[in-house]
Amino acid sequence: MANSRFRPINFLPLVFCFLIVPLTESSSDTNSVYSPCSDAKIQRKDGFSFGIAFAGYSEFLPNSSSNSPQLSPCDRRLSLSSANSQVAVFRPKVDEISLLTINTSNFFPDSYGGYMVAFAGRKYAARSRPTFVANSSHIVTSFTLVLEFKKGTLQNLYWKRFGCALCSGNGAFVCINNQYCAIRTSSCKNRGGNIDCSLGIQLSFSGTDKHDSVFNSWYEVKNLRQYSLFGLYSNLRDSLTSQFNKFF
Ligand SMILES: *[C@@H]1O[C@H](CO)[C@@H](O)[C@H](O)[C@H]1NC(C)=O
Ligand SMILES: *[C@@H]1O[C@H](CO)[C@@H](O)[C@H](O)[C@H]1NC(C)=O
Ligand SMILES: *[C@@H]1O[C@H](CO)[C@@H](O)[C@H](O)[C@H]1NC(C)=O
Can you give the pLDDT at residue 15? Predict the structure, then answer.
């Protein structure tokens, strides 16, 4: 069914586009939907495409003055294309804990409004709340995103916060609103410091696939978080911030 309110995302300036290739053989991926602005019904081991848009907080609201509901970045009523925005597209494997990275050596989120929204779907347009990433003085580099499915259709995306326990006592970090650790931008590489302030987004999946099989990765994240999941990604750990190193 054509729905004129929606159209594919490629009108957005897709300057960087990461395709996270599944680590196992692609034959297990039965999902033929590659656009983050189309609806997919997935089963375990499928790839699943979703997008992350960077823009200012108010760019994600159709009417910043009214309290109208937030729209999906796929919805052209938002006119993100004419706004100062960027989109990254990812295709992780469903029900595997993945760590997505966005290299900030040439991309400063604060130049694009400083907030991000994760989104996927068209008729079932799901999108997260905008979450703060960076302003000119601070950047948050560590995120956990939960993708919640019901019978294989994405219902909800949300950012999980784990508080500031892991960053307290480290001088490079600042705790914001008792919710997340931020790094002073002046400590970042290319900005006068020596920390790699690339963004790390840890994904997990909850709910059920189209065969009612239950996703387990969110359960694993909850239980592993106390040891910091970054330990699972030893190859990435050195290139990401040293934020959690003392816990390995
Ligand atoms: C924004 O608000 C105006 C006036 O209330 C309304 O006419 C318009 O449809 C709204 N735009 C969206 C995208 O909801
Ligand atoms: C950036 O955001 C942090 C956290 O909200 C805030 O403490 C700081 O004052 C902001 N900096 C600027 C320049 O707005
Ligand atoms: C980001 O890119 C720079 C330059 O290409 C590279 O030196 C750095 O290691 C990269 N960081 C990550 C986390 O991949």
Answer: 34
148 C-beta neighbours (distance < 10 Å), count: 17
Q: Find the helix or strand (DSSP H, E) in which 221 lies.
A: helix 217-224
DSSP assignments along 7-21, one per residue: --GGGS---------
Q: How far apart are CA 83 and CA 117, in angstroms?
A: 14
Task: Tell me if 246 CB under 6 Å of ligand 1.
Answer: no
pLDDT at residue 127 in the model: 93
Ligand 2 atom, smallest distance to 136 CA: 13
How do the domains of the chain map onto residue ranges? 17-245
Does pTM surpass 0.90? no
- CA separation for the pair 210, 23 (Å, rounded): 22
Is the model's pLDDT at 226 over the cut of 80? no
